[in-house]
Amino acid sequence: MRTSVAAVVTLALGLGLTACGSGTDSGKGGGKDDTLVVGATAVPAGEVLTYIRDHLAAKAGLKLEIKEFTDYVLPNTALQEGELDANLYQNQPYLDDFNKSKGTDLVPVVKPYLPPMGVYSHRVEDITKLADGATVAVPNDITNEGRALKLLAAGGVIKLKAGAGTDASPRDVTDNPRHLKFRELEAAQLPRSLDDVDAAVVNNNYAQDAGLSPTKDAILLESAKNNPYANLLAVKRGHEDDPRVKKLAGLLVSPEVRAFIKDKYHGSVLPATGG
């Protein structure tokens, strides 16, 4: 009996180690065979990737699996840990800050489109009509908060100190004639805050998820000119030359995808001018 039990335990351990080893060896983001597993937020990244998967990938010899996320942290941690092969949802300032603060080693491959950030309100139809003491909700992560404050400054409702960069915070506001109050919230919560605040600065993907049209509903929208916030395809360092990644990168800036973005989003998402 002892011998039989020992044999069963040994066999089970062997199978367990084999299974673990198999998972590690196939590793590539949890995909099957040569499938490229890409993490994305639903809009616009998920929609752009779905178009590529359904219309372009097979002809290019690419097997594509899309995993959607509802926040900005998990797609990067999953990529760093090897659960994904790539992700598409963030801009360069956010990626730089994430690598610095989290100790990750992620790099950009291509920048296919710009989703402009906008200011939305259920109470005013003009950014200049914000009342004295109005509350404006902004993202609570460093780079998106800085981006939001720069947008408000571009709209003329605040001024930032000279040299304020992508990590600008309310402490960098030097002129606030309307005495605006800033409420820092997780980016995904901002559309739901519109009933409770006077205005909210919302990232494009969360605005569209909530049924808001950047071109129709925003009371202030980013300009594409000299804008550093184009979304990028990212991979873990050392995987930039993965043939599957190169195929996806080429498709993301192809004429077909540029036309899809123009036709579907009507200016709410803008194709990038290059890689």
Automatic annotation (TrEMBL):
Localization in the cell: Membrane
Membrane topology listed for this record: Lipid-anchor
Keyword Ubl conjugation: no
Transmembrane regions listed in the UniProt entry: none
Stored InterPro entries: Lipoprotein_NlpA
Domain of life assignment: Bacteria
Signal sequence annotation: 1-21
PANTHER family referenced in this protein's UniProt entry, alphabetically: D-METHIONINE-BINDING LIPOPROTEIN METQ, METHIONINE-BINDING LIPOPROTEIN METQ
Family assignment from sequence similarity: Belongs to the nlpA lipoprotein family.
Name this polypeptide is given: Lipoprotein
Originating organism: Streptomyces lavenduligriseus
Lineage per the UniProt record: Bacteria, Bacillati, Actinomycetota, Actinomycetes, Kitasatosporales
